[in-house]
């Protein structure tokens, strides 16, 4: 089963200046088979992206919020702890 889904941000802590770049990375400690990733903000339905990285090139005011990475191996789904992104 999947376990240990963690989220990291660049810049660290998810505090990013307006217009700057934000990169979120999703890591999985344990999981087998082909993994599929999806990114969500504030529990919204449609994914913001698919893949282990989410890159926002020019961060705007409406990009702040809680981001989560969701990982599936086809059988089970695991989510990261939400990361709060603050646009300064």
Number of discrete helical segments: 0
Fraction in beta strands = over 45%
**Main beta sheet:** 5 strands, mixed
- What Rg, in angstroms, do the CA atoms define? 13 Å
InterPro entries: Ig-like_dom, Ig-like_dom_sf, Ig-like_fold, Ig_sub, Ig_sub2
Organism: Melanocharis versteri
Protein name: FCRL2 protein
Pfam families: Ig_3 (PF13927)
What does this structure look like?
Residues 1-86 form the Ig-like domain. This is FCRL2 protein. InterPro entries: Ig-like_dom, Ig-like_dom_sf, Ig-like_fold, Ig_sub, Ig_sub2. It holds the Pfam family Ig_3. The protein is an all-beta fold and 88 residues long. The chain has one domain (3-87): Immunoglobulins (Immunoglobulin-like, Sandwich), CATH 2.60.40.10. Helices cover 0% and strands 51% of the residues. It has strands at residues 3-10, 15-16, 22-30, 36-41, 53-56, 65-72, 77-79, 83-87. Strands 2, 4, 6, 7 and 8 form a five-stranded mixed β-sheet that branches. A three-stranded antiparallel β-sheet has the order 1-3-5, with no helix packed on it. Strand 6 and strand 7 form a beta hairpin. The radius of gyration is 13 Å and the shape is elongated. It starts with a strand and ends with a strand.
């Amino acid at each position: 089963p999947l376990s240990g889904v963690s989220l990291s941000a660049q810049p660290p802590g998810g505090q990013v200046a307006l217009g700057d770049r934000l990169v979120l990375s999703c890591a999985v400690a344990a999981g087998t088979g082909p993994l599929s990733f999806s990114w969500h903000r504030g529990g919204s339905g449609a994914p913001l992206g698919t893949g282990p990285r989410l890159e926002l090139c020019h961060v705007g005011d409406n990009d702040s919020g809680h981001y989560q990475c969701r990982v599936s191996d086809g059988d089970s789904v695991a989510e990261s702890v939400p990361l709060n992104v603050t646009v300064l």
